[in-house]
Amino acid sequence: MWVKGQIDKYIPPKKVHNPREIILVVDATFYAKRKDKIGTLVFKDNLTKEILIWKHISSETVAEYKDLKNQLEKLGYIIKGVTFDGKRGLPKLFKDFPIQMCLFHQRGIINRYLTLNPRLQAGKDLRYIVSRLKYTNEKNFTKKLNKWFEIYENFIDELTVNPLTGECFYKHQKLRAAYRSLRRNLSYLFTYKNYTYLDIPSTTNTLDGGTFSVMKKKLNVHSGMSIELRFKIVDYFLVNYKKK
């Protein structure tokens, strides 16, 4: 009981800030079941690998990102670029800065729509174009994507009719969705190459595969802990985080 009491009384130290120019990597991670979903939204500086600011959340909304962004700017940080995971609304929130869509997340979106082994030739061709994403540049990628659309425009516009309701819908909805995702995010896929002097990362892996994975390993050692204690451990980990 004494140990539990000491833990309950423990208050993690506050973050000490050093306002400066930063390149942000932003993302959230969740570590509870869907019914009691909890997580943490984190902003990390890619230049120093320092965790700058975070907050515990129950849902990943643009409003939560906006709150942390505003806090950083009020503290005096100067944002020079941002890498994000593709969440809708974030390009508008960070519209004043060069922004990079995580290439890993973009490929993941395409894989979910097309699967790893597309049956249709159009899907195979589109997936091949995406597989070359990190090896090409915006001009050549756009050229390839435009050519794909010229070839398959009529195909992805094919309609089918529900015999019971008479309702029309696109026959190849997932293929259309994959193409539209690439078209929607095209302006954010090559920022890291267009602004090489800023050192903007092409993925959010410094958070996903770095900070979050280490943090979750520590949390999983005591999976039955309360939410309050979980948050204390996360706060302690993030305020003391240093890249190995």
Structure overview:
It is built from 10 helices and 7 strands. It folds into 2 domains: 15-98 and 195-244, 2-Layer Sandwich (Nucleotidyltransferase, domain 5), CATH 3.30.420.10; 112-187, no CATH class. The protein is an alpha/beta fold and 244 residues long. Helix content is 47%, strand content 16%. The chain is globular and about 70 Å long. Helix 4 runs antiparallel to helix 5 (121-131) and helix 5 packs antiparallel against helix 6 (138-156). The protein starts with a helix and ends in a 5-residue tail after the last helix. It has a 5-stranded mixed sheet, with helices on both faces.
Summarize the model shown:
This protein folds into two domains: 15-98 and 195-244, Nucleotidyltransferase, domain 5; 112-187, no CATH class. Helices cover 47% and strands 16% of the residues.
